[in-house]
Amino acid sequence: NQSEKTKALFRFSEIAEAYEVLSDLKKRAVFDQYGEEGLKAGVIGPSGRLLGGWQFSSDPQNVFSKFFGKTSPFGDSVLLQDDDVSPWRFDNPGSDRTVPPIQLPLNISLEEAFTGCFKKVTFTRKRLLPDRRCTTDEERTLTVAVEPGWGEGTVVKFPSEGHELLHYIPPGALEVLIKENPHPVLSREGTNLVYVNKVPLANALDGHVCRVPRLDGTVLSLALPAVSRGSDSCIFTQKGEGMPVAGRPGERGDLIIKTAVEYPAKLSGKARSTIRKALAEPVRAK
Question: 19, 119, 224, 285: which one has the fewest Cβ atoms less than 10 Å from its Cβ?
């Protein structure tokens, strides 16, 4: 369990900090007289000299090694070859320690991604009890405002809404990961929408009206020309009929219509003869 492992790392780091203070007579004397705040912030002693002003900077691995003869509290399964893989490094080796975020998936429909919506998410997080040392599980519900144009891969961050494990480390964040449900008719490619227009061969050769269902519930009717020049002529683009562009009000992608010609499964002898005769006639340029 990642959160329990992280909590254990924080706890041992706290123990290592206490050990460094208690094993140093001068630091312990300042702590006994002025407390943790005086030790870390610094105080003016009887002689007029600054006492304290100390911050924990030792590597907890060294403290662990003094007691157990190895640097990792997780046994031989963790190989510490350099600082980058040290379990004491938490998120960012060069910054203050942070609690890893809670990551929560949120499924939305293509219609909801098109119009925007409000969705509630419920999750369980750890929070400190009043003693500021023990934790309890807490259920939390938040509302996510999904903006038009959001889609698969969008991450919504809620700072300080994640786990709270130690009193001197800020609570972690909640990260909501947007997942987009498949649509029965339309598919999405970035800000573009793709519609596969299935049309019988007769209509494809003679031109036809294509009716595309829009995500707002209306229908777009387009008169498409006859398909006669191969695959390139089977793709049509309608500008501005795609998905909204997130963060750019009024901008939209395109609608791409891919015509899929449906050939008859069976032809009568008369029909085959008619088609053969029609195809044999020379085509005169207009």
Answer: 285
